[in-house]
Amino acid sequence: MKIAFIGGGNMAAALIGGLIRKGVPAANLYAVDPNEDARKRTSEQFGVRTGASADTALAQYDAVLLAVKPQVAKAVAEGLAPHLAPHQVVISIMAGIRIADLSRWLNGHARVVRTMPNTPALIGMGATGLVASEGVDATGRQLASDALGAVGQTVWFDDEAKIDAVTAISGSGPAYVFYFIEALEEAARQLGMDEQQSRALAVATFTGAAQLALQSNESPAVLRERVTSKGGTTAAALTSFADSGVKDAIVRGALAADARAKEMGEEFGKQ
């Protein structure tokens, strides 16, 4: 497996590191970024070859992975198009950018996989949704699975619209979790704990609860009920959450994220 990365930011670094840990030789990876500091950092950290711009060297790779901001997707894709070979799979991790628009900017390149990873990929615990264009065969899908699977779980979808939903749930999801941790830490401080104590208890609670949900055959609702005694402390907290509409607010927030992902597709796709 040989992969060229366009963009050398945090997510690209996470994927490069994950692939190397999975046994992919550094010589099989290539990172392109116009920023000299980014190239130097990637080269020193992983020992991979780097370049300042797309060139004919890209043709020797099985896949080209786009890890740039969606705002520059069109310009990057148009610069990449002359150097692509028909056999290559183009893998996008850009939020909101639709396959049809990316393929158009790539002069009709037919082998495109759109994905949405999340930031826990930085520690090898990511969750990524993937969808492929009709031109991607089983080998190409496996290549994309192996690339994104190097940093966590992968889930395939047949409907591209679901990738906007993935963005709303797992792509943006870590921010929701951090937001709740912040709130627990604040409550702990108001109850007299210092910052270190607040952080330790809040983070450990989330880590432990997530692992319990992962390892249990029971639903989160059942697990919640097992913690909740009638008239007890947990019931008091959950009643307060319900009175404040916390659950509904979280759902509305995720739906707003999905709507924004669709808006981004429309906005950037018009270019």
Describe the structure.
It is an enzyme of class 1 (oxidoreductase). The protein is an alpha/beta fold. The protein folds into 2 domains: 3-165, NAD(P)-binding Rossmann-like Domain (Rossmann fold, 3-Layer(aba) Sandwich), CATH 3.40.50; 173-261, Orthogonal Bundle (ProC C-terminal domain-like fold). The protein is built from 11 helices and 8 strands. Strands 3-2-1-4-5-6-7-8 form an 8-stranded mixed beta sheet, with helices on both faces. Helix 5 links the parallel strand 7 and strand 8 (152-156). The radius of gyration is 21 Å and the shape is elongated. The mean pLDDT is 94.
Provide a compact summary of the structure:
The protein is α/β, with parallel strands linked by helices and 271 residues long. It folds into two domains: 3-165, Rossmann fold (3-Layer(aba) Sandwich); 173-261, ProC C-terminal domain-like fold, CATH 1.10.3730.
Name the CATH superfamily assignment of the largest domain: NAD(P)-binding Rossmann-like Domain
From the alpha-carbon coordinates, what is the Rg to the nearest angstrom?
21 Å
Enumerate the spans where pLDDT stays under 50 for 5 or more consecutive residues.
Answer: none
Helical content class: 40-55%
Q: With helices defined by DSSP (H or I, 4 residues minimum), what is the helix count?
A: 11
Output the helix-strand order: EHEHEEHEHEEHEHHHHHH
Using the 3D structure, state the CATH architecture of the largest domain.
Answer: 3-Layer(aba) Sandwich
Topology-level CATH name of the largest domain? Rossmann fold
CATH class category label of the largest domain: Alpha Beta
Q: How many angstroms does the end-to-end distance come to?
A: 33 Å
The count of domains is 2
Taking all residues together, what is the mean pLDDT? 94
**Backbone shape:** elongated
Largest sheet: 8 strands, mixed
Function: Catalyzes the reduction of 1-pyrroline-5-carboxylate (PCA) to L-proline.
Main location: cytoplasm
Keywords: Amino-acid biosynthesis, Cytoplasm, NADP, Oxidoreductase, Proline biosynthesis
Domain Pyrroline-5-carboxylate reductase dimerisation: 160-264
